[in-house]
Write a structure and sequence with these properties.
Length: 467
């Protein structure tokens, strides 16, 4: 006996029903508290049922997810979530995601999804154009900057070892020649994780000292060789600082070393006339990583990995098996770690098409302006700003009372007015406010500042305001 409804009408109903619920969720998200209430979190126990024996109405499952799940979300889709350097989802990207969910496309080759493949090609062109990177680079769309770092560093590993007569994909790393790994002492944790995953390890890192803002000091760069891999970043996760990538690349390119740039959010400075100078010469590097889901405001999860040496990427990433249909062009599946993957480029395409060059630039500039506004206000209140607020990040502390940071952060977060996190910056306890969302407004910044002021009063923190 057939127990479930088997016709496309069931999917049509599910799509209509969930789109309607999703739209209601979004229409009230801005007036809601940013963090979910404890009650809402408590209600999650309702989901802990035992695995059902029998099928049920799909709409009933969606309704349960909405009723219990929606109140227990963090309101990252709205304008006052300032943690983790992540943005919301642009309307066009969100819509593209919904359509893609219905399409159910698998973008392994141009044969499995002509539209998914074409969107990758167009997005590739547009990403290289807006970031002004060499047009012959390969671009892979993957789950985030972690996997992007993985892809690029795997390609680097291939190229640096190949020139020493070693085929790492075939021979592995036992007995392999050494790769000289040079990294900023401020390198992101995911880059270290990637070094571990790729068998390169973290003990061998030749760390380069940074200035007070967290940018690599060029004079501290060790002697590079044709076996060196230099791991730089555009946009320190705390301060937003960018390494002197152009200068490092000039030195590296003389000897054939590989320079990789982790620009999970900061690479987008390249799309802004007034911020581009922070990345001076960055296009002379060998590989770059950025996220769609951070500053470009596509939905999760979407990372973008760019490489000047497509053949090295292919050597490190290709998957060949008799059952895998060969495409008539280079297959996406052979240029990223994942075999089965969604049509992520659709969301990048939709973001770039709907914003255009000017819209992306405005998004970047607006976020930077909010960071500037926030730092000026915090400074006036008597907080100490610890970073050079050149990008979208503000790192602040309370002089002589850094033990109050956690209290302050929890107080604001519990108020539901805004959400941001504590951090440690160059040996000091601090808090960090990141502006990365298209939907944040001047008013959201004002609400957040008012909430911080209130928390200071209610907690009896004494600041020395500037007169
Ligand atoms: C967020 C971030 C990453 C990791 O990116 P995911 O998309 O979360 O995998 C890497 N580097 C930096 C500088 C980041 O900010």
């Amino acid at each position: 006996m057939q127990k479930i409804r088997i016709d496309m009408g069931a999917s049509v109903d599910a799509m209509t029903f969930s789109s309607d619920r999703a739209a209601k969720y979004l229409s009230s998200i801005s007036s809601r508290k940013v963090a979910p209430s404890n009650d809402a979190i408590g209600m999650l126990t309702k989901l802990h049922e035992s695995l059902p024996d029998e099928p049920s109405d799909p709409l009933e499952t969606i309704a349960l997810l909405d009723e219990v799940g929606s109140p227990a979300t963090m309101a990252t889709a709205a304008g006052r979530f300032f943690g983790l350097v992540v943005g919301g989802s642009l309307p066009a990207s969100l819509g593209a995601r919904v359509l893609c969910a219905a399409w159910d496309q698998l973008v392994t080759t141009d044969k499995t999804s002509p539209i998914g493949f074409e969107l990758e090609k167009i997005s590739t062109r547009w990403v290289l154009d807006i970031l002004n990177l060499p047009r012959a680079c390969s671009v892979g769309f993957l789950s985030g900057s972690t996997m992007g770092n993985f892809m690029c560093i795997a390609a680097a590993r291939h190229q640096l070892l190949e020139r020493n007569g070693w085929d790492v994909e075939r021979q592995g790393l036992f007995d392999a020649p050494k790769v000289h790994i040079v990294a900023s002492e401020e390198i992101h944790v995911t880059v270290k994780k990637v070094l571990s995953m790729l068998g390169l390890g973290t003990d061998n890192i030749d760390y380069v000292k940074c200035d007070a803002d967290g940018a690599m000091l060029i004079n501290e760069l060790p002697v590079l060789t044709s076996s060196s891999l230099v791991l730089t970043q555009a946009g320190n996760v705390n301060s937003g600082a960018c390494d002197p990538i152009g200068e490092i690349s000039d030195i590296a390119n003389e000897v054939g070393a590989w320079v990789h740039v982790d620009g999970a959010f900061g690479l987008w400075a390249a799309a802004s006339e007034s911020k581009r100078h922070l990345l001076n010469g960055f296009n002379k590097a060998s590989s770059w990583v950025t996220d769609g889901h951070k500053w470009l405001n596509t939905p999760y999860d979407c990372g973008i990995a760019i490489c000047k040496y497509p053949l090295a990427v292919h050597a490190a990433m290709s998957t060949v098996a008799p059952y895998l249909i060969a495409g008539s062009d280079i297959s996406p599946k052979d240029m990223v770690p994942e075999l089965s993957r969604s049509a992520r480029a659709a969301e990048v395409w939709a973001a770039l098409r709907s914003l255009g060059r000017a819209g992306v630039e405005d998004l970047i500039n607006r976020c930077c302006r909010y960071a500037e506004m926030m730092s000026v206000e915090l400074d006036a209140l008597g907080f100490t700003i610890l970073n050079d607020v050149a990008l979208n990040q503000v790192v602040a502390t309370i002089a002589q009372q850094s033990d109050k940071i956690d209290l302050l952060v929890s107080h604001v977060n519990a108020s539901g007015d805004a959400w941001f996190g504590p951090t440690h910056w160059r040996g000091q306890s601090a808090f960090r406010i990141s502006f990365s969302s298209w939907v944040t407004t001047d008013n959201d910044v004002a609400i957040t500042i008012a909430s911080i002021k209130r928390a200071v009063q209610e907690l009896g923190i004494t600041l020395k305001p500037r007169s």
